[in-house]
């Protein structure tokens, strides 16, 4: 980032290559819509670029990056909450094609053991939905903790809370997930 | 140690992020507490299940869009930018300097004297009318001119008293 600050455009390109996938995944899990996640990720990179001259390496770059991303995601979730509730109540149940699910015909062609495939897909879907149902701050904490493997201190800075508050937040999130995923957890333990 | 105090440490224990002393304390508690041990196992199961969520890849157009948005950003220039080399500014400054020097040179060549009196004298010398100095210094031709009227009046005034007397 210091090279970007110094005006090295190639370093910005390296940042883009390194962080675009984790950033898009984090934002996708937060806002639950691929297109919106990509728009937000673009906005994050744009803000990084705009702020490059004023960047002070007081914290890790990753912490700074995900702080911008988390704030954008939380604002987006709050802004779209009513809209989402209306859509989810009115919309028919459909397959989430953008999340790796495939159409029935493709499934039959690609997966000879279709029964096993469907079981695995149902399992993944259940996990995704359990994450989606978490309150947004708990969801952000879990995503940063599990998928970005950030330290508690870094996650606490991103979410602007104390480290003990973060541990409590994560404990509550895992408790909720434990209950939501009880059938899978029970099978996992056997 | 109570189960309540353990709660905030369970996840760190599952992640193996506890300090050595805290880990030993936790294991001591777990060996005696079945409910906390069960919770640790369930948290481990949840952590393992979360790893099954597949990642998505950004669309191929993502990088292009980011680059386009970055390229469209207006270039901000601070006041220091005035001091950065610019061919246009350097050319304009050179022209201005040349013009100033030329005007200064021209004005000096038109006014060779610093003293205004000296300048007037020079001007008088250069006037063609004054070339013939004899015209100015010789007053003889003026003797042929009639005497002024005032002189006649004076003689008349001196004669009058004698006539009356």
Provide a concise account of the structure shown.
The complex is a heterodimer of chains A (190) and B (165). Chain A has 190 residues and is mostly helical. Chain A is built from eleven helices and no strands.
Describe the fold and architecture.
The complex is a heterodimer of chains A (190) and B (165). Chain A has helices spanning 2-5, 9-31, 34-50, 61-79, 81-90, 104-110, 114-132, 136-146, 152-159, 163-180, 182-189. In chain A, helix 2 packs antiparallel against helix 3 and helix 8 (136-146) crosses helix 10. Chain A is mainly alpha-helical. Chain A is globular. In chain A, 31% of the residues are buried. Mean pLDDT of chain A is 83; it is low at 91-98. Chain A has a domain at 1-91: Rna Polymerase Sigma Factor, Chain: A (Orthogonal Bundle), CATH 1.10.1740. Helices cover 76% and strands 0% of the residues of chain A. Chain B is mostly helical and 165 residues long. Among the domains of chain B are: 3-50, no CATH class; 91-126. Chain B has helices at residues 3-14, 20-32, 34-50, 61-71, 87-110, 116-126, 133-137, 149-164. In chain B, helix 1 (3-14) packs across helix 2 (20-32), helix 1 runs parallel beside helix 3 and helix 2 packs across helix 3 (34-50). Residues 161-165 of chain B have low confidence and may be disordered. The interface between A and B is large, with 44 and 35 residues.
List keywords for this structure.
heterodimer; A: 190 residues; mainly alpha; Rna Polymerase Sigma Factor, Chain: A; 11 helices; 0% strand; globular; B: 165 residues; 8 helices; 66% helix; rod-shaped; disordered C terminus
Tell me the greatest interface: A-B, 44 and 35 residues
Helix share bin of chain A: over 70%
Main pleated sheet of chain B: none
Instruction: Please indicate the percent range of residues of chain A in DSSP E strands (runs of 2 or more).
Output: under 5%
Q: If helices are DSSP runs of H or I spanning 4 or more residues, what is the number of helices of chain A? A: 11
The general outline of chain B is: rod-shaped
How many helices of chain B? The count is: 8
Report the radius of gyration of chain B as a whole number of Å: 58 Å
**Helix and strand sequence of chain A:** HHHHHHHHHHH
Query: Which percent range fits the helix content of chain B?
Result: 55-70%
**For the record, what CATH class of one domain in chain A applies?**
Mainly Alpha
**Global mean pLDDT of chain B:** 78
The CATH superfamily label of one domain in chain A reads RNA polymerase sigma factor, region 2, helix turn helix motif
Major sheet characteristics of chain A: none
Radius of gyration of chain A, in angstroms, nearest whole number: 19 Å
């Amino acid at each position: 980032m210091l090279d970007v600050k110094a005006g090295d455009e190639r370093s910005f390109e390296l940042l883009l290559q390194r962080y675009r996938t984790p950033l898009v995944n984090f934002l996708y899990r937060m806002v639950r819509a691929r297109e919106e996640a990509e728009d937000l990720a673009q906005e994050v990179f744009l803000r990084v670029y705009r702020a490059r001259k004023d960047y002070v390496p007081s914290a890790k770059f990753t912490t700074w990056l995900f702080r911008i991303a988390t704030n954008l995601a939380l604002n987006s979730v709050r802004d779209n909450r009513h809209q989402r509730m209306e859509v989810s109540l009115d919309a028919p149940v459909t397959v989430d094609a953008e999340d790796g699910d495939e159409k029935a015909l493709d499934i039959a062609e690609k997966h000879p053991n279709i029964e096993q495939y469907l079981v695995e897909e149902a399992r993944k879907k259940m996990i995704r939905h359990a994450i989606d149902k978490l309150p947004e701050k708990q969801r952000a904490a879990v995503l940063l903790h599990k998928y970005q493997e950030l330290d508690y201190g870094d996650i606490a800075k991103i979410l602007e809370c104390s480290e003990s508050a973060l541990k409590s937040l994560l404990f509550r999130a895992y408790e909720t997930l434990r209950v939501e995923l009880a059938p899978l957890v029970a099978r996992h333990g056997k | 140690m109570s189960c309540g105090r353990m709660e905030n440490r369970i996840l760190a224990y599952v992640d193996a992020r506890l300090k050595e002393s805290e880990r030993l304390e936790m294991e001591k508690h777990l060996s005696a507490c079945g409910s906390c041990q069960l919770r640790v196992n369930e948290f481990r199961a949840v952590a393992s299940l979360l790893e099954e969520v597949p990642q998505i890849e950004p669309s191929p157009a993502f990088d292009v869009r980011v680059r386009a948005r970055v390229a469209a950003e207006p270039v901000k220039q601070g006041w220091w930018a005035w001091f950065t080399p610019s061919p246009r500014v350097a050319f304009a400054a050179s022209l201005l300097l040349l013009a100033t020097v030329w005007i200064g040179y021209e004005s000096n060549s038109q006014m060779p004297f610093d003293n205004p009196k000296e300048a007037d004298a020079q001007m008088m010398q250069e006037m063609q009318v004054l070339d013939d100095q004899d015209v100015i210094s010789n007053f003889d031709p003026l003797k042929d001119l009639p005497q002024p009227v005032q002189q006649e009046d004076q003689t008349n005034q001196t004669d009058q008293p004698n006539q009356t007397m």
